[in-house]
Amino acid sequence: MAESATISKGLEGIIAGETGICAVDQTSLIYRGYEIADLAAHATFEQVAYLLLVGQKPSEAELRAFSAELIANRPVPAQVVDYLRAAGPMLKAGTAVPMDVLRTCVSILGNLDADSQDNSPAANLRKAKRLTAKIPTIIGHMQRIIDGKDLVNPATGGDPALGHAANLLFLMSGEKPRPDYAKVLDVSLILYAEHDFNASTFTSRVIAGTLSDLHGAVTGGIAALKGPLHGGANEMAMEMLKEIMRDVGEKGIGTAAVDDWMQRAFDTKRKLMGFGHRVYKNGDHRAPILHALGRKLALTDTRNPGGHSAGKWFDLGEQVQKIMLEKKNIHPNVDFPCGLTYFTMGIAVPQYTPIFVASRVTGWSAHVMEQHANNRLIRPIAQYVGPALRHW
After folding, report:
1. Catalytic site residue from 164, 195, 215, 277
2. Are residues 113 and 172 in the same domain?
3. Residues 163 and 312 in one domain
4. What is the CATH number of the domain that holds 285?
5. Is residue 116 domain-shared with residue 189, that is, in the same domain?
6. Alpha helix positions (H), the chain
7. pLDDT tens for residues 125-139?
8. What is the structure's pLDDT at 278?
9. Residue 182 belongs to a domain with what CATH number?
10. Catalytic one among 195, 335, 367, 372?
11. 229-265 pLDDT, tens per residue?
12. Do 196 and 249 reside in the same domain of the chain?
């Protein structure tokens, strides 16, 4: 490589391309010109999905047509259902996790889609809508199989009268969700939909840059999102809080026991999930939005997830956040309140990251289409640090 080239480990700080989809900086997160707090307060996920995929805010007529198209595409093919049933023992044995199964389901959908090998803008948009519609159905059916229960309305992919977020909850639980649950999940999907060249989106763009297909690019995005340093952080954050709750035991939260637990984690250099961000150094704009909604749910919820009131889990989470900020000056990212909020709603922890996929598939698809529209193969160079030239 050229001697003048510099190395940026993890490509940190490197501008790898241009995008008109999303802008991320220290003071704002913008989807195609709209700030995230504005979208969370005033839009629905269906509107945001249309904005990302089509490129503009939908009119009322466009939104009705788009929503109807999503509803019509909710059912999944028999081959996918057959695979989900076959994957049940693997999920229960732990040789597979829901993200693995979801990844394979998207591959199967690609094999069955008549547009799978067509990278034209129209075909990509059709495929993106189908994936956006079907991924929640896959998640719901998978959870029912894990729970040993009948699938919910497989012929229709849920209830056509329910919106996208509400239907996802219905598919998992078999019960019509509370309106506030549906609203909070809807907002979380908006918050997770897009985030410029994050690891999974960049993976999708690298795949698309070879002129591979949208299903393949989304499959790669799922594989990247699975990792605990990316999308899997919401699951790991909740598992950490459950561990703290177990360990402090009768000493209780709000006492020095939690401070002691955190100090041991610092002393052993344990990675605490749900904190810090490669871009946001002064706090993730999305985190307080979801935290406020989750805390409000917790205060009105009579359930006792994990054996404790939902409010007690948020008390613990806020104590952990306070310690992290005071001792390490590290803010929570959106994954931390997400774990708490989904736990309050009774969603199984292993499905947190698949639900992230149900949202981010819109962002991935938008980036794949943008990459295909103005493509250049993404091919960085590496600095060789192996042995000097030698003879065999």
Report:
1. 277
2. yes
3. no
4. 1.10.230.10
5. yes
6. 36-42, 45-54, 60-72, 78-93, 98-112, 121-146, 164-173, 179-192, 199-209, 214-225, 233-248, 256-267, 286-300, 310-328, 335-344, 352-373
7. 999 999 999 999 999
8. 65
9. 1.10.580.10
10. 335
11. 888 888 989 999 999 988 887 677 777 889 999 999 9
12. no
